[in-house]
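Lecture notes, part 5. Sequence design as translation. It can be helpful to think of inverse folding as translation between two languages: the language of shapes and the language of residues. The source text, in structure tokens, appears below.
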């Protein structure tokens, strides 16, 4: 069993993107209701701390049975190697397209099936946030060991 955490670059992205969004929303709210500025500031600080925690604890765990994807305070699920359809892209990230019906939910704090990065029948596990050029990195070699069907180009070269 091997655990991979987000790369430093992706940790920064995972912290900044939601915080910039929240800051823009809170700035607009503070403009119209300036007497709540302290409440907005405290909320913003708590949101920032939570984003740092999530960025540092987001991980995947790989073993011979499958892959587990954890996003703290949101969701975690497990998928067996045979239920991973292909490697694909979603929002500029490369990762695994997974058949949603085969997902074993470990926990889902939002209590909705839509948390599984929903786009129709498939869910997505981003791998490019865990290793730069993940196919050539240790992460890719580890996945290839258990799921060679995800690397058809390498099979044809051999």
């Amino acid at each position: 069993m091997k655990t991979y955490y987000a790369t430093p670059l992706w940790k920064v992205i995972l912290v900044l993107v939601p915080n910039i969004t929240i800051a823009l929303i809170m700035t607009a709210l503070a403009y119209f209701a300036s007497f709540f500025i302290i409440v907005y500031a405290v909320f913003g600080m708590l949101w920032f701390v939570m984003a740092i925690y999530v960025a540092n604890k987001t991980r995947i765990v790989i073993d011979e049975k499958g892959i587990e994807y954890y996003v703290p305070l949101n969701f975690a699920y497990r998928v067996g190697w045979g239920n991973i359809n292909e490697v694909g892209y979603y929002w500029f990230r490369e990762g695994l397209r997974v058949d949603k019906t085969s997902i074993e939910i470990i926990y889902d704090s939002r209590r909705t099936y839509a948390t599984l990065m929903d786009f129709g029948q498939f869910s997505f596990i981003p791998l490019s946030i865990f290793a730069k050029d993940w196919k050539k990195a240790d992460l890719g070699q580890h996945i290839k060991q258990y799921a060679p069907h995800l690397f058809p180009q390498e099979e044809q070269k051999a």
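The translated text above is only one of many valid answers, since several sequences can fold into similar shapes. Strands lie at 2-5, 59-62, 66-71, 75-80, 84-90, 93-99, 104-108, 122-126.
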